[in-house]
């Protein structure tokens, strides 16, 4: 892999990191040996803007490629060498899933979250992360996802044509972009509840301007889920 050499910190000429720090090629080899450890990537990003820039352009990209190689190939198959919202944003999304033991994304599952007229779009969605026995709210599931080429998607066009509302205060936790409310836009199909094993009227999810998805649902008890699957 050929990397552009940058030997000076882009933060300031007087930054202490300009005094003999490693080149990009060496750092690439070091983090490759460390299997692109996300905690160390975060730590390096905090040193200065030179290291932060390297992490955004190279390290988070390699982290994503090693954690979800097939999905990364598909997301870039349209000819783009980047992804919507940048690699660090996608790295955050994958990192959170890895920490809670859920790393599986499914393109097939993503179809269940799209209205029939939008199912030519490509959406990867994770399995729900279960938070059991949440009092009155019951068993809660959190799920995340990402669209391929969201700027060209039918979902985005429909959100705009319906003048779908944005969340008044919250932003995407991965890229800080504003969020569309899919429930308010009436764009959550009933198939989503079947895929999640959740109550149909207890699913809510948001899509940001860069195509990152985050949602929450109330999960059916296991016995009810089994019965629903048989039906």
From TrEMBL:
Domain of life assignment: Eukaryota
UniProt-listed PANTHER family: EID1-LIKE F-BOX PROTEIN 1 (PTHR31348:SF2), EID1-LIKE F-BOX PROTEIN 2-RELATED (PTHR31348)
Protein name: EID1-like F-box protein 2
Lineage: Eukaryota, Viridiplantae, Streptophyta, Embryophyta, Tracheophyta
């Amino acid at each position: 892999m050929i990397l552009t050499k940058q030997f000076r910190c882009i933060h300031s000429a007087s930054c202490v990191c300009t005094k003999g720090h490693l080149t990009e090629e060496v750092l690439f080899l070091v983090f490759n040996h460390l299997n692109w450890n996300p905690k160390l990537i975060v730590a390096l990003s905090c040193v200065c803007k030179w290291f932060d820039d390297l992490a955004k352009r190279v390290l988070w990209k390699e982290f994503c490629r090693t954690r979800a190689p097939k999905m990364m190939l598909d997301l870039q198959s349209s000819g783009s060498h980047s992804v919507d919202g940048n690699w660090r944003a996608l790295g955050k999304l994958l990192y959170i899933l890895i920490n809670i033991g859920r790393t599986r994304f499914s393109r097939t599952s993503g179809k269940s979250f799209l209205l029939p007229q939008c199912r030519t779009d490509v959406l990867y969605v994770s399995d729900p992360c279960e938070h059991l026995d949440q009092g009155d709210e019951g068993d809660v599931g959190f799920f995340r996802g990402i669209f391929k080429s969201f700027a060209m998607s039918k979902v985005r066009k429909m959100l705009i044509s319906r003048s779908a509302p944005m969340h008044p205060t919250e932003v995407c936790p991965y890229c800080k972009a504003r969020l569309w409310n899919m429930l308010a836009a009436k764009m959550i199909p009933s198939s989503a509840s079947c895929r999640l094993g959740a109550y149909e009227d207890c699913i809510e999810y948001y899509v940001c301007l860069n195509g990152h998805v985050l949602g929450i649902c109330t999960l059916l008890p296991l016995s009810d889920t089994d019965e629903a699957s048989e039906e």
